[in-house]
Structure to design on (1167 residues):
């Protein structure tokens, strides 16, 4: 009379579909996805919208927005088109955000995985190094690295990666410490699987969801760090950047506040989209935490 | 006259689940009555809705997602469902109180035991601090906590699991409630502690004349404590009646099947195995979990998990390792598979010492000794398909991946799963099914020995019976040698030819199961055996053709 | 061997001992950064003097020990740091330590005000949002949190300046006090407070949102735990649950975050101090980068690290006080 235990449940839809269904439930996350898509689109179409150099003079200096259709969002004190700067700035922000995040996650995963998996003295040494990095105020370290390496965009990106890896390292370490004693890891080890495979094939895929969610946070922080550098005039002068535009706009804040406000709103919306995206990913990837 | 009227009367109670659940009602048409001085046991497997009924009586359901959709709950003639929140606060903890399953998590880790007992008194009792304190200490005394004064000032993490549950009971009974709801109060405890707690609940309830609604999944516990039994399945009552009636003459086929799933305490007839070759031999195994510490990381006491353990497992034999938590039995399973490094000793598998192997030799040797793990949720990598999980071992050991996968599909059939299971992920299976997959994974390596670490302890009793039957079948057909670690003496009796009884890392008794059960020599073994819940009750033999 | 020390002292000593390797690593790190930077002390010195002949430069190198092997240089460098000798600033023509001490007070004041506001307001709003989860109040608080979180402090600073200084004229646009004011007593305090309002707001809002979000999710999580259900079954009301059972447990991760994030807040002061021309360590760091004053920059890193270590130590003590599960000894 008991239901036989061996009867299978009906098959579940594929992971992608389940993921999207869960993601879709969070309306704010959908908004985040939309803004994110717009920013990506801006970065991709920058060349079409304004094929010239965004740093060239495009009209009379300090034209207000919606006055001249050639420069719809106005111009700054050097006559540069703000709309065009916005589009090209999206490129730099996304580029720096993505690459710096990849650098930070890569370092964080390697250090965190080794520390969490092996424990003992490996953990002790790596965690002291992590703490040392965490102890130095990250923006001061970033300034120092930029002072030493120079202001080229590649170096700035690398430097942002270097000052951002500690939090993911700690997180990966914690994930590994809890996962390494799970029975499925013991089971694989008992099958004769090597340490490298255990780390990368068994544990890492299971540690990924929180890392992916956290990547959206690092991405947002990287964009903030880059824009702060550019604001202070320490960014790469060869590229249009939102932070730099705000920095320039500061000089004309009294008369033409829109020069600073427009790129500022762009940063706020972009960073906001990443946080919303992160929340949506969290809902979709860690369903047990839903309300 | 009050004595005769029921304390709790539930009529046709319906609890609705949120939309999109597997069924519309968690509980559909529950009727029950609890009289003064009576213990009513509500039994059912997981998902039967038994815990939600407790929530409904306390009016602590996670509303609005889960809510009462119909019926009535009368407590001392008053309608609970019509009470205001304010009135309910007066009733909770005062006239109806609750004991929960996990004594560790049910107590606030940041407050002392005394503070938490005092909270109930403060909320419902007149009287100053000194009077409340006196009453609390008295309660700790009544639940037989040694040194109540110091327990009063202790934090929950500083006392043992059994004592924590005593504290919970002291808290629940401190105001002599008319109704006590106990939700699986002994499930998280060891068997000897469980019996003490059951006795304690009985004792206090008789002193106070309270009614008890006791929720459990364990028929042994039912046999131990129940006056009246209600059997639930999927939110519906399938049978209820006096304990003796339901336990010994179950009417409903589901009850009959459940009771038939309870492992018998009669061990199998001893097999003449000692002449067969020894496939696994442990000699002088030792493991101490080192004292961490010194200046940098704080001190923790060294724990001796296993000291000087030796045993032999013969070809085709099942050797049970039984003991309570902290006995070192799980450590044994990790030592013989070298998932933990032993401090001393030898493990001979097929004549070769596993513990002396170099790391690369070890990986080769691993195919001879495989393991089935305890937690079916945790022992399968959630990101791998079933076929890859089963084929992984052979592939690591150099088998052609295609062949290994074909073999994996055959193994699925062997463990009675449909081949359609092969391409699914672990989360799509029930606990019992996952455990079958775990068994298939172990068998794929064609090992000389299988070590099973509590393989059925996380399963419902009916599923447990099916998995145990599968293990026994496979063992007989394939002549497997099993090292079977369990805390459940009923399960050990069912499956093991010989057993080792462990206490605090040492073997206190070893021998043929039937002999140990019939005539335990060591006092600890005797204590264990006499603590088995419902040991005086022999489940009725079911009509074999009823299924 | 039984030392009769109180447990809290043993715990403190252990925590301090753990910080030593971290400080040594930071010393080595700043040394490496100095080596990586183009030009050394002698280059700076010679530049300062306006040039010298090769022989003299060589003599200076020997004098400064720059001809020694790297290990010896490192050892000497660490010896100097240990006595808080941070070298000479060629920009300010003063010992670095003196320059730093002049600036330390302003930064500490800014940190103290911003963090106490961020922490208390963040925790309070987070708790309120969680208690009324998914209501209008919660939505407003959570949305504000998201926006604060996404607003870069320099942008917020500019917009506040625009509003409060340029348009409304309520608040001074920068500096720590009115230069020609010569205020004393309470007038001075009031003057400094007025100057600190915008920097404090700019620095604290983003961290406020961190604490708010963490506190909200932490309270929601703790509210789901078994012991809260137990307390409810005892007949405790919602207010009692919140204050006696949930808050203390929910605060623990927030305190941890506070410790972890302190160094980030210190870094954030660079931007805010620069914008509002506050004479603190952050502004100094920015100027040192612009002026290539590596000695001062390394001095700032070292001093900030010490401050962070001290603050982390204090948060650890606070955590141990809050969490009774931590055995001190």
């Amino acid at each position: 009379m008991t239901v036989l235990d061996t009867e299978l449940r009906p098959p579940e839809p594929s992971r992608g579909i389940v993921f999207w269904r869960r993601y879709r439930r969070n309306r704010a996350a959908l908004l985040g996805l939309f803004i994110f898509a717009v920013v990506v689109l801006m970065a991709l179409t920058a060349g079409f919208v304004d094929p010239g150099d965004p740093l060239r003079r495009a009209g009379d200096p300090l034209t207000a927005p919606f006055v001249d259709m050639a420069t719809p969002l106005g111009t700054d004190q050097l006559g540069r088109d703000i709309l065009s700067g916005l589009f090209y700035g999206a490129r730099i922000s996304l580029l720096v955000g993505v690459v710096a995040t990849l650098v930070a996650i890569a370092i964080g995963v390697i250090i965190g995985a080794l520390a969490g998996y092996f424990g003992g003295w490996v953990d002790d040494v790596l965690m002291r190094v992590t703490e040392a990095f965490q102890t130095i105020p990250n923006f001061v370290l970033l300034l120092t690295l930029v002072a030493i390496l120079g202001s080229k965009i590649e170096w700035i990106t690398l430097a942002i990666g270097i000052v951002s890896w500690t939090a993911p390292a700690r997180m990966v370490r914690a994930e590994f410490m809890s996962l390494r004693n799970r029975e499925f890891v013991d089971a694989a080890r008992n099958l004769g699987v090597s340490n490298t495979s255990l780390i990368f094939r068994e544990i890492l895929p299971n540690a990924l969801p929180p890392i992916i969610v956290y990547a959206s946070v690092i991405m947002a922080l990287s964009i903030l760090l880059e824009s702060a550098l550019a604001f202070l005039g320490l960014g790469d002068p060869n590229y249009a950047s939102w932070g730099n535009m705000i920095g320039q706009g500061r000089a004309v804040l009294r008369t033409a506040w829109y020069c600073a406000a427009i790129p500022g709103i762009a940063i706020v919306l972009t960073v906001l989209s990443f946080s919303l995206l992160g929340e949506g990913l969290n809902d979709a990837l860690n369903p047990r935490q839903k309300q | 006259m009050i004595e005769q009227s029921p304390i709790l009367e539930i009529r046709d109670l319906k609890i609705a689940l949120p939309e999109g659940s597997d069924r519309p009602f968690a509980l559909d048409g529950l009727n029950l009555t609890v009289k003064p001085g009576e213990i009513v046991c509500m039994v059912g497997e997981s998902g039967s809705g038994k815990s939600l009924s407790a929530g409904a009586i306390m009016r602590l359901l996670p509303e609005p997602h889960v809510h009462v959709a119909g019926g009535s709950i009368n407590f001392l003639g008053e309608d609970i469902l019509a009470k205001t929140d304010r009135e309910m606060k007066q009733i909770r903890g005062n006239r109806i109180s609750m004991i929960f399953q996990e004594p560790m998590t049910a107590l606030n880790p940041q407050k002392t035991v005394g503070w938490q007992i005092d909270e109930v008194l403060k909320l419902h009792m007149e009287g100053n601090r000194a009077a409340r304190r006196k009453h609390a200490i008295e309660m700790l005394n009544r639940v037989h906590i040694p040194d109540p004064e110091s327990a009063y000032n202790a934090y929950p993490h500083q006392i043992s699991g059994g004592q924590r549950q005593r504290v919970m009971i002291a808290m629940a009974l401190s105001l002599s409630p008319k109704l006590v709801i106990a939700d699986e109060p002994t499930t998280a405890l060891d068997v000897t502690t469980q019996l003490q707690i059951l006795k304690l609940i009985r004792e206090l309830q008789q002193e106070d004349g309270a009614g008890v609604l006791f929720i459990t999944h364990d028929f042994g516990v039912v046999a131990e404590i129940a006056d009246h039994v209600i059997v639930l399945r999927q939110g519906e009552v399938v049978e209820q009646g006096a304990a003796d009636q339901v336990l010994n003459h179950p009417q409903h086929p589901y009850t009959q099947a459940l009771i038939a799933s309870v492992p018998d305490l009669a061990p199998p007839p001893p097999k003449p195995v000692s002449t067969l070759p020894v496939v696994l031999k442990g000699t002088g195994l030792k493991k101490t979990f080192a004292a961490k510490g010194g200046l940098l990381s704080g001190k923790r006491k060294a724990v001796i998990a296993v000291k000087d353990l030796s045993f032999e497992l013969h070809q085709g034999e099942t050797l049970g390792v039984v003991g309570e938590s902290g006995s070192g039995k799980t450590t044994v399973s990790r030592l013989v598979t070298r998932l933990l490094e032993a401090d001393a000793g030898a493990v001979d598998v097929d004549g070769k010492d596993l513990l002396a192997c170099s790391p690369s030799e070890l990986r080769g040797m691993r195919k001879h000794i495989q393991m089935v793990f305890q937690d079916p949720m945790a022992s399968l990598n959630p990101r791998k398909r079933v076929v890859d999980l089963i084929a992984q071992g052979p592939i690591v050991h150099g088998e052609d991946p295609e062949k290994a996968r074909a073999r994996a599909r055959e193994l699925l059939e062997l463990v009675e799963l449909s081949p359609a299971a092969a391409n699914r992920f672990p989360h799509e299976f029930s606990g019992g099914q996952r455990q079958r997959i775990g068994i298939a994974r172990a068998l794929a390596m064609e090992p000389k020995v299988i070590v099973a670490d509590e393989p059925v302890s996380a399963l419902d009793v009916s599923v447990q019976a099916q998995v145990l039957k599968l293990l026994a079948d496979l063992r007989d057909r394939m002549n497997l040698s099993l090292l079977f670690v369990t805390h459940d003496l009923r399960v050990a009796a069912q499956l093991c030819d010989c057993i080792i009884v462990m206490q605090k890392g040492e073997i206190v008794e070893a021998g043929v199961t039937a002999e140990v059960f019939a005539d335990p020599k060591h006092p600890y073994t005797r204590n264990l055996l006499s603590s088995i819940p419902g040991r005086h009750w022999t489940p009725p033999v079911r009509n074999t053709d009823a299924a | 061997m039984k030392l009769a020390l109180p447990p809290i002292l043993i715990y403190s000593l252990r925590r301090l001992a753990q910080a030593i390797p971290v400080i040594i690593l930071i010393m080595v790190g700043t040394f490496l950064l100095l080596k990586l930077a183009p030009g050394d002390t002698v280059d700076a010195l010679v530049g300062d003097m306006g040039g010298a002949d090769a022989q003299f430069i060589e003599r200076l190198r020997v004098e400064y020990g720059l001809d020694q092997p790297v290990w010896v240089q490192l050892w000497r460098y660490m010896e100097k740091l240990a006595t808080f000798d941070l070298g000479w600033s060629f920009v300010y023509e003063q010992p670095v330590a003196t320059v730093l001490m002049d600036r330390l007070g302003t930064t500490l004041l800014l940190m103290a005000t911003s963090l106490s506001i961020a922490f208390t307001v963040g925790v309070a709003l987070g708790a309120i949002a969680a208690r009324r989860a998914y209501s209008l109040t919660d939505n407003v608080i959570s949305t504000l949190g998201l926006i604060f979180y996404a607003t870069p402090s320099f942008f917020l600073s500019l917009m506040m300046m625009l509003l409060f200084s340029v348009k409304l004229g309520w608040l001074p646009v920068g500096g720590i006090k009115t230069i020609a004011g010569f205020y004393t007593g309470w007038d001075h305090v009031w003057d400094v407070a007025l100057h600190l309002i915008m920097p404090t707001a700019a620095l604290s809002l983003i961290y406020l949102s961190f604490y708010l979000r963490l506190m909200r999710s932490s309270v929601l999580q703790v509210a789901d735990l078994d012991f809260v259900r137990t307390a409810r079954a005892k007949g405790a009301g919602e207010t009692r649950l919140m204050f006696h059972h949930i808050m203390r447990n929910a605060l623990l991760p927030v305190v941890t975050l506070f410790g972890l994030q302190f160094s980030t807040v210190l870094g954030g002061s660079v931007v805010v101090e620069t914008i509002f021309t506050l004479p603190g360590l952050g502004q100094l760091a920015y100027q040192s980068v612009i002026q290539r004053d590596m000695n001062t920059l390394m001095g700032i890193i070292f001093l900030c690290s010490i401050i962070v270590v001290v603050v982390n130590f204090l948060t650890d003590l606070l955590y141990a006080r809050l969490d009774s599960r931590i055995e001190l000894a």
Q: What stands out?
A: The first helix of chain A runs from residue 15 to 25. Residues 79 and 188 of chain A are 64 Å apart (CA to CA). The domain at 91-273 of chain A is CATH 1.10.3720.10 (MetI-like fold).
